[in-house]
Amino acid sequence: MSERRLLNWLWPAVPVVGALLFTAVLLILFGASPIVAAQAMIQGAFGTQSSTLNVFAFWLPLLLSSIGLLLTFRAGLWNIGIEGQIILGAIGASWIALTVELPAPLQIALQIIVAMAAGAVWAALSAYLKTRGGVHEIFSGLALNNLAIILTNYLISGPWQPPEGGSFRGTQPFEPFALLPRFAESRFSPPSLLMAVVAAALVFVLLRGTSWGLKLKALGKNAYSAFLLGVASEREMVRAMMLCGALAGLGGAVRVLSWFDSLRQSISGGIGFLALLVVMLAAYRFFWVPLIALFFSIVLSGSITLQLRTQLHSSLGGILTGVMVLFVLLFGDPEKLGLRARKGRTEEVEVEEEDEDEYQPPEEAATIEPVGGNVPGGPG
Amino acid sequence: MLLEASAGLQQPSEGRILLGGKDISGWGYHRLQNAGVAYMAAGRLEEGLVAGLTLTEHMVLAQPEQTFFVNWEEMQLKTARRIDHYQVVGRPNSTADELSGGNQQRLLFALLNRQLRLLLLEHPTRGLDIRSANWIWEQLYERRKEGTAVVFISADLDEVVERSDRIAVFFGGRLLQIVSAEETTVEELGHLIGGEL
């Protein structure tokens, strides 16, 4: 039992190692040395103090979004709209930064609150389109992502353009009192780390210890049964989306207030999509999320140096993360590969896995032999 | 359909639904649930239990009033007592899909709250062995004694005649007749189901 649990727990590492090996083989085929490439990547990420801090600065919004996604994935929702929720958070924070002048702590607090509210509202749109309009959250999310990008472009080229004229690049830099305090000339801001830790703790407690977390779990596994058991499914879905949106919005605020110093054209830079990959790679397991998010940050920060050092294109980092996710989807579930021993006959009666072994009407008589199903070489 | 409408899962296009003389037409499922109406569908793992959740987790979800933080230890004990009382073969940490069909049905009964006004059941004993089926009927008789109205649908005509007080026969989407179980036979019911008065 404990061996199996250990295997279960360590399983997310398997696709990661597999993808590393695959990328290494790819490099060798192109006549490059994987070791040199890895060295360049690590050098790029951790070579100087500021590059190390930048890895963490990139990590924080990614972590915030990934943690939010744990909630929506738990409820069985595909919150593709997270990218737009990050952008809306960035817009919300920028709006306050450009229009309000308060003492620094209040200013920053207000910016963050507005950013979280904006992200939550954007997520609520997706959620209500699902519960009231019957629009799948993937489609509404994609549409809202695009709308968020269009809104950004409109703002930076229109109402919020710098005094010297619209450039499509960004707004004018915010006043220093509106920015998050940064650490030693880097883009890393310690208060953001604190907020991320608090957010992670909050989500952990919500998922583990509260009836709300349990309701989300039930919704994600079987929404109709959960409804029949008394879960107000629509309300809880909206809440899960809104809380995820608020965390994404906070991530967006961190992006404008410490990574950049203004609202830029590609303010999120795909962090929302990256967060989806992080959570899938972590197989929705809480403790893997920060580690994998950090790993992604290292790879992506290191890729730029990689190009300078080795003439390998910086998209190698993207290839590595992409292959990794592909490997997760292929090998992510040890049960599908038949590597996990069966608990007993009862495990065959699992509705979620209807693919190969037919759903057996659960009978009282315990004499039916388990059908081999998707266990290669199992008793037939 | 009739059961789903009575449970508030479907809204009738016309007509009224009364519960104890009170008009409940248009009430939603959860509102009726709070008013003491329970609905047990035929698909135990599809429409009732959540595969992958433990018995304790089911018990927490089925509580009429939930605290924000779950007291897992207390719920674990409560679940242990409840499954003991309802003779569910399983542990509080078992998941619902690990149980056999009969035990899943027992678990559904264990999750029902006390003092129901109306209990609606779809094929309550389908796929169960005789011992489990008899146990289910004991539970239902006990509920009836407490004053709960029990309405069930079954494809087993012997069961329908043996276990009911009154039988409503539908044909072609319409209520054909309500007969007294004491005065009818399986043959007569068979004819009625075929639309022959």
Explain what you see.
The complex is a heterodimer of chains A (380) and B (197). Chain A is an all-alpha fold. Chain A has helices at 2-10, 13-29, 34-46, 49-74, 82-99, 104-131, 137-157, 190-209, 211-221, 223-229, 233-259, 271-281, 288-310, 315-331. Chain A has 14 helices and no strands. Chain B has 197 residues and is an alpha/beta fold. Chain B contains eight helices and seven strands, in the order αββαβαααβαβαββα. Chain B has a three-stranded parallel beta sheet with strand order 3-4-5. Chain B has a two-stranded antiparallel sheet with strand order 1-2. A two-stranded antiparallel ribbon of chain B has the order 6-7. In chain B, a hairpin with a 2-residue loop joins β6 (166-171) and β7. Chain B is globular. At the A-B interface, α9 and α10 of A face α2, α3 and α5 of B.
Q: Please tally the β strands of chain A and state the result.
A: 0
- Alpha-carbon distance between the termini of chain B? 23 Å
SSE string of chain A: HHHHHHHHHHHHHH
Structural class given helices, strands, pairing of chain B?
alpha/beta
| Number of strand segments of chain B | 7
Large-scale geometry of chain A: globular
- Helix tally of chain A equals 14
Low-confidence stretches of chain B: none
Q: Radius of gyration of chain A over alpha carbons? A: 23 Å
DSSP strand (E) fraction of chain A? under 5%
Q: Which structural class matches the secondary elements of chain A?
A: mainly alpha
